[in-house]
Specification:
With 658 residues, this protein is an alpha+beta fold. It is built from 24 helices and 21 strands. Helix 1 packs across helix 2, helix 5 packs parallel to helix 12 and helix 10 runs parallel beside helix 16. The radius of gyration is 33 Å and the shape is globular. It starts with 6 loop residues before the first strand and ends with a helix.
Length: 658
């Protein structure tokens, strides 16, 4: 056996081993350089950056008591690497994974000779589906990492944990993976929940994800009640190693065409463009048989968001297959190497050829800005699974996130596939029939405070709810940027300034002002608000407020939505503000906000009624405030002894007895 190279740590590895931040590790080098026990000196390895022998660093940490890891000696291998190994080298990583997988099957791997290691690999993997070629490649290198693999398993406490650690360090060193990088736990759990719901208890599950963590979690959750199949020709060796180490049986003889649930991830390789992602999605759809179902997760920019005409036609062809039963846009932060990337989930089912194309429906949901908590995942999967059922199932299910749209309208849509999903669902037919009676009851209850508006219980058509992007495109509304104001301009006199934080407490609007002359001088092209403008923000939460008077300055990052007076398209400012408040937040989320609309003849009386109610509410709040002040003053007078409270009934009784 060749000499094993020393395990080395860079400063990031030192910090990881010690359980501290990297600047602390750097500080140790300088602070203790002249002491009797200095931090270990770096070794010369030609890498161009300081690296240190892991054993020396671990001894120093334990000996001096620095850091937060008293088990540094045992954990050193988990933070280090051999001098000739790089976690950015995919081939080297595959060899190390193969050694760990072989270690899980063979005792005392580091005591075997190279020929014995080769023989053990052949016995474990006679068909060369998992690790045999990687072991052979490593033996050609001189079998220099066998001891490291053994130490890594010991440091991670198990072969499965060691493989997970290798995957994390490989991903951290390869940020160029982009959309193909590791999924976070919440995204994995969502896909697994969907797969479990589709598989039931007796289906064959085909793992076409190319994602070891995802595939391993699917296999663990489904247990021994289903057959796990990896399709031939797929880049599945890494997945097979993880499943082998964790004890999951792969049924090479199973027929994945009968009752199969395919779990797929697109893209499977880094650098795939939208066209490549859609081709991969189409291949998954075409591979399904009549009794199959599928769960696909991938970038929302390809699966949901607006596309170029060419890519849009490719996506429309997939929608025409009759298999797409559910589509959900997810939030950002679900891919470690692309934290600003939004993902989307597609649910594929049996083709609905027995239903006329014009009558086919698809469940769509927009969870942009919504955290994937266990409750959120359960409700979303429940919504999407209801879409796989009958018309009775749809009527019986209480939907939280999903809405149902004609599949034909998705095929014809040029924008986002989830643009029509409203955050506040429209009333059902049964609820709408009860609204006139409910309005009469509510009007009677407030008659003492407000003259109720007259209504006519006559059903009529209203424009469909639409996304902000669609409404801007159609010319019904404009977006106006806020002005970047220098803090020195702000004061207590001049034009009223509305800031993003003011939207949390609209009563505070008016406290911040800007000198009109100075503002006009520094921002000659800036626009003041007009009555009815909707001032909004997108972070940290979505919030909005309707300016009743106009002539205000909106300070960036707050912005304005201004309804086109000549063509409002059924938009009412107060409804816009209500739909924005609490909507998904984050960069670009405003384009996908769905705004409800009303019939043109309803707009004026509705706005007047809303204004009257707001005025009545302000009057009641003022009366309540006066009563509160009166009560507070009475308590202050009584407790200070400044006044005496007189019981008039008691005084009258006393006078009568005299």
């Amino acid at each position: 056996m060749s000499t094993t190279p020393a395990l080395l740590l860079d400063l990031t590895g030192v910090a990881r081993l010690a359980g501290v931040r990297r600047p602390v590790a750097s500080m140790w080098r300088s602070r203790f350089a002249s002491t009797v026990d200095p931090f270990p000196a770096p070794v010369a390895d030609g890498s161009g950056r300081p690296r240190f022998e892991a054993e020396q660093v671990a001894d120093w940490l334990v000996r001096t008591g620095h850091g937060n890891n008293p088990e540094a000696r045992g954990d050193a291998a988990a933070a280090a690497a051999p001098s000739d190994f790089s976690f950015s080298d995919a081939g080297a990583v595959a060899e190390l994974q193969a050694l760990v997988a072989l270690h899980a099957q063979v005792e005392d791997l580091d005591e075997l000779t190279p020929s014995q290691i080769e023989e053990a690999a052949a016995n474990v993997d006679p068909l060369d589906l998992v690790l045999r070629r990687e072991i052979a490649a490593h033996l050609d290198r001189g079998a220099r990492w066998v001891t490291y693999a053994t130490c890594l398993v010991d440091a991670a406490y198990s072969p499965a944990a060691a493989l997970a650690l290798i995957a994390r360090r490989h991903a951290a060193s390869n940020r160029a993976a982009g959309s193909a990088g590791p999924l976070v736990a919440d995204a994995i759990d969502l896909v697994v929940d969907a797969a479990v719901a589709l598989a039931g208890g007796d289906a064959t599950v085909t793992l076409d994800a190319g994602d070891a963590a995802l595939s391993s979690t699917v296999a663990s959750r489904l247990g021994a009640s289903v057959n796990i199949v990896l399709p031939a020709g797929a880049d599945s060796r890494r997945v097979r190693r993880h499943l082998l180490v964790e004890g999951h049986w792969i049924d090479e003889a199973a027929d994945p065409a009968t009752g199969s649930v395919v779990v797929a991830r697109v893209p499977s390789v880094a650098g795939a463009d939208v066209a490549g992602i859609l081709r991969a999605l189409d291949e998954v759809s075409l591979s399904l048989r009549d009794s199959d179902a599928g769960v696909v997760i991938g970038p929302a920019r390809a699966l949901v968001d607006p596309l170029t005409p060419t890519d849009e036609r490719a996506r429309t062809d997939i929608l025409r297959s009759g298999r797409v039963r559910g589509i959900a846009r997810l939030s950002t932060g679900l891919v470690d190497s692309a934290v600003r990337e939004s993902l989307a989930l597609w649910i594929l089912g049996e083709p609905t050829f027995e239903v006329a194309p014009a009558q086919r429906i698809t469940a769509v949901a927009d969870l942009t800005g919504v955290q994937l908590t266990p409750a959120t995942r359960a409700d979303l999967i429940s919504d999407l699974m209801a879409g796989m059922g009958t018309a009775h199932d749809l009527r019986a299910h209480q939907f939280r996130f999903a809405a149902f749209v004609r599949t034909a309208s998705l095929q014809a849509r040029s924008g986002s596939l989830v643009a029509s999903v409203t955050r506040k669902p429209a009333a059902t037919t049964e609820e709408a029939a009860e609204l006139p009676a409910l309005l009469d009851i509510a009007a009677e209850a407030v008659r003492a405070d407000l003259a109720p508006i007259e209504i006519a219980p006559e059903p009529h058509d209203v424009p469909r709810a639409a996304s902000v992007a669609e409404l801007i495109r159609d010319g019904h509304v404009r977006r106006i940027q806020g002005t970047r104001l220098h803090p020195d301009l702000l004061g207590s006199e001049g034009l009223v300034v509305v800031t993003a934080s003011d939207l949390d407490e609209p009563a505070s609007i008016g406290r911040t002002r800007v000198d009109q002359f100075a503002f006009a001088t520094q921002h000659p092209s800036a626009q003041l608000t007009r009555p009815g403008d909707v001032i909004f923000r997108t972070s940290p939460t979505a919030a909005a407020w309707v300016d009743p008077d106009g002539s205000k300055v909106v300070a960036y990052p707050a912005r304005v939505l201004r309804i086109t007076a000549a063509d409002p398209g059924g938009l009412v400012p107060e409804i816009i503000a209500a739909d924005i408040t609490g909507a998904p937040a984050g960069p670009g989320a405003w384009k996908r906000w769905t705004l409800r609309r009303v019939a043109t003849r309803t707009m004026a009386p509705l706005r007047q009624a809303i204004a009257d109610i707001a005025a009545a509410r302000r009057g009641l709040e003022a009366r309540a405030a006066r009563l509160t002040d009166y009560a507070n003053l009475m308590v202050a007078g009584a407790t200070s002894g400044a006044v005496t409270m007189i019981d008039l009934d008691h005084a009258a009784d006393a006078a009568e007895t005299q």
